[in-house]
Write a structure and sequence with these properties.
heterodimer, A: 172 residues, 9 helices, 59% helix, 9% strand, elongated, B: 43 residues, mainly alpha
Chain lengths: 172, 43
């Protein structure tokens, strides 16, 4: 588009953001959908304990950043403004916020049978995801894991791919 | 990328300008409006 309009990319990005702010009717549901699309292409960086994804649209990026801030977390975009890195704790909270209640219930229900835990500790969605991601971090070492393609292809509604991999992973 | 339906582009632009910008737009606001119409027509 920059070449078509013969203006710099930075100006295109600024115009697109202002256009989204003023004229678009992006809803919370659209942001959730966009988030899961990005998560499906995310990478897990074992060396940093962070999940990394590319969000080109500034409006979506800012909205997700605002949601993180609301939950007391922050995103790191210092390397490149379009690359967002978030700590696994923040990522888990974000998933807990964006996943529909039914999906969370299903993950907890099916995760309970697979996870080994102390009797007094209640099994929660966050605990299951934390165990899973911490295990993944330990296994991957300092490598980069294609987290989205391997575990989060189903988006918010279809969690079957995540569940089957989660169960097989937790039961090892 | 080119705007193929120029008539629709003009209709949309005038509609937006008349309802949201007439008399109160800066050059930047005007550019944003044109950009918004352009993007909605070509994507």
């Amino acid at each position: 588009m920059s070449l078509d309009l013969q203006i710099p990319e930075t100006k295109i990005r600024r115009l697109a953001y202002e256009s989204d702010l003023k004229y678009s009717q992006i809803t919370e549901a659209d942001i959730k959908t966009a988030f899961f699309k990005k998560v499906a292409k995310s990478k897990f960086r074992g060396d940093l304990n962070k999940v990394e994804f590319v969000i080109e649209n500034k409006f979506i990026r800012t909205s997700i950043g605002a949601q993180l801030k609301k939950m007391g977390h922050y995103a790191d975009s210092s390397f490149n403004s379009e690359i967002t890195r978030i700590h696994i704790e923040s990522f888990i909270d974000l998933l807990a916020c964006y996943y529909p209640e039914k999906a969370i219930e299903r993950i907890v229900k099916e995760g309970k049978s697979a996870i080994s835990h102390e009797k007094n500790t209640p099994i929660t969605f966050k605990l299951i995801l934390r165990k899973f991601l911490e295990g993944l971090a330990a296994e991957s070492g300092k490598k980069v894991v294609d987290l989205g393609a391997a575990y989060f292809t189903g988006g918010a509604e279809n969690i079957t791919p995540l569940l089957s991999k989660l169960k097989s992973y937790l039961s090892v | 990328m080119k705007v193929t339906d120029k008539e629709q582009f003009a209709i949309e632009f005038i509609e937006q300008y008349a309802t949201r910008g007439f008399g109160s737009m800066t050059k930047n606001d005007f550019e944003v409006l044109v950009f918004n119409c352009y993007v909605s027509m070509v994507i």
